[in-house]
From TrEMBL:
<dbReference type="InterPro" id="IPR050085">
    <property type="entry name" value="AGPR"/>
</dbReference>
<comment type="pathway">
    <text>Amino-acid biosynthesis; L-arginine biosynthesis; N(2)-acetyl-L-ornithine from L-glutamate: step 3/4.</text>
</comment>
<keyword id="KW-0560">Oxidoreductase</keyword>
<dbReference type="InterPro" id="IPR036291">
    <property type="entry name" value="NAD(P)-bd_dom_sf"/>
</dbReference>
<keyword id="KW-0521">NADP</keyword>
<comment type="function">
    <text>Catalyzes the NADPH-dependent reduction of N-acetyl-5-glutamyl phosphate to yield N-acetyl-L-glutamate 5-semialdehyde.</text>
</comment>
<feature type="domain" description="Semialdehyde dehydrogenase NAD-binding">
    <location>
        <begin position="3"/>
        <end position="141"/>
    </location>
</feature>
<dbReference type="InterPro" id="IPR000534">
    <property type="entry name" value="Semialdehyde_DH_NAD-bd"/>
</dbReference>
<dbReference type="InterPro" id="IPR023013">
    <property type="entry name" value="AGPR_AS"/>
</dbReference>
<dbReference type="GO" id="GO:0003942">
    <property type="term" value="F:N-acetyl-gamma-glutamyl-phosphate reductase activity"/>
</dbReference>
<keyword id="KW-0055">Arginine biosynthesis</keyword>
<dbReference type="InterPro" id="IPR058924">
    <property type="entry name" value="AGPR_dimerisation_dom"/>
</dbReference>
<comment type="similarity">
    <text>Belongs to the NAGSA dehydrogenase family. Type 1 subfamily.</text>
</comment>
<protein>
    <recommendedName>
        <fullName>N-acetyl-gamma-glutamyl-phosphate reductase</fullName>
        <ecNumber>1.2.1.38</ecNumber>
    </recommendedName>
</protein>
<keyword id="KW-0028">Amino-acid biosynthesis</keyword>
<dbReference type="Pfam" id="PF22698">
    <property type="entry name" value="Semialdhyde_dhC_1"/>
</dbReference>
<keyword id="KW-0963">Cytoplasm</keyword>
């Protein structure tokens, strides 16, 4: 059994880790932290976990994290970077769901995240945990930077086109929509029902911190710096991301065959039949990205539709997929949930 610690067990990604790990046959939940709820049984706060998780929250300073095999950080940006070195020194593997280790260019990270980085050397060591690109490097890693939610949907959508070199990478466009759980569980006015319900808006058009992350990943695939416009939107749903991606084709290719071949052996990417329109509810509560590729009017613009559940393939599910790879377990272990309809 793998002894597991979770720092930040009261947020939405924390409770999603708990839901999935409670059903994972090799997971032994050992420590779950919260500063505000220390001492409270986990199932008192999250009734969906009654009878499934017996632990109580503990204060991060007292939790037996160094006795775990792996610690997940489901905390705001800037927390994991202050605690990761001590855990790695104690032989614990670390998977950070926040952005502390995602961006290799430290000056770029500091600009977008508005703080000084505490451990640039560990950023250099960290492996970006998108298994569809980095599976072999994840296997031998101690420290995983779990990708952001929008970056997962956008990179998986563009990946086959860029790897194959069949689009103009100077003018990529990603138009993405997220449910409000993407903003976390903390109280904020813009996610109140009366603000976000029956409403739809773009945000961060001038610049969003997922832009450098997506650009870094796509540039590595392209072998050159790509040009990317990324526009996120907030939609009145709870879970889900829908990314609509646009690129200009530079050569003739059978797009459907390209996508089906690239993802044929990927357990968590589903390429839909030609002409399909994936729905966010078709991936709700499941660790899957569904993709459809279109070429409207047979022109030279390719349109890719990519959907994920932001809390699962966009966060906790992908983190557990990375854990399975790190510990040599079957990649699908504990992650075979069927999506929830309606
Ligand atoms: N929501 C989403 O869809 C996605 C989120 N992420 C990332 O995952 C991380 C967690 O997100 P989410 O679950 O939404 O966040 P929440 O705001 O819902 O939860 C944050 C958690 O961190 C704990 N926490 C806050 N500050 C500290 C601290 N200084 N030390 C220890 N624990 C702390 C909180 O508990 P307490 O204050 O009681 O200690 C709480 O349990 C974020 O970095 C987010 O950007 C990534 C992908 C998708
Ligand atoms: C709807 C909403 O607010 N989404 C969040 C998504 C970011 C997130 O969760 O952060 P990381 O993936 O970088 O960890 C946002 O735009 O800030």
């Amino acid at each position: 059994m793998i002894k597991i610690g979770i720092v930040g067990g009261t947020g939405y990604t924390g409770v999603e880790l708990l839901r999935l790990l409670a059903q994972h046959p090799e997971a032994e939940l050992t420590a779950i932290t919260s500063r505000k709820e220390a001492g409270m049984p986990v199932a008192d706060l999250f009734p969906n976990l009654r009878g499934r998780v017996k632990l109580a929250f503990s204060d991060p300073a007292q939790a037996p994290l160094s006795q775990c095999d792996v610690v997940f950080f489901a905390t705001p940006n800037g927390v994991a970077m202050t605690q990761t070195r001590a855990l790695l020194d104690a032989g614990v593997k670390v998977i950070d769901l926040a952005a502390d280790f995602r961006i290799k260019d430290i000056a770029m990270w500091e600009k977008w995240y508005g703080m000084a980085h505490a451990c640039p050397d560990l950023v250099a060591e960290a492996v970006y945990g998108l298994p569809e690109i980095n599976r072999d490097r994840i296997r031998g890693a101690r420290l995983i930077a779990n990708p952001g939610c929008y970056p997962t949907a956008v990179q998986l959508g563009f990946l086959p086109l860029i790897e194959a070199g069949v689009v103009d990478t100077d003018h990529l466009i990603a138009d993405a929509k997220s449910g409000v759980s993407g903003a976390g569980r903390k109280a904020e006015v813009h996610t109140l029902l009366a603000e976000a319900g029956d409403n739809f808006k773009a945000y961060g058009v001038a610049g969003h911190r997922h832009w450098p992350e997506i650009r870094q990943g796509l540039s590595q695939l392209a072998g050159r710096v790509v040009g990317l416009t990324f526009v996120p939107h907030l939609t009145p749903m709870i879970r889900g991301i829908h990314a609509t991606l646009y690129a200009r084709l530079t050569q003739e290719v059978d797009l459907q065959v390209l996508y089906e071949n690239r993802y044929r052996n990927e357990p968590f990417v589903d390429v839909l039949p030609a002409g399909a329109h994936p729905e966010t509810r078709s991936v709700r509560a499941a660790n899957v990205c569904r993709i459809a590729v279109h070429r409207p009017q047979g022109g030279d613009t390719v349109v890719v539709l990519s959907v994920i559940d932001n809390l699962v393939k966009g966060a906790a599910g992908q983190a557990i997929q990375n854990m399975n790879i790190l510990f040599g377990l079957p990649e699908r272990l504990g992650l075979d949930q069927v999506p929830l309809l309606p």
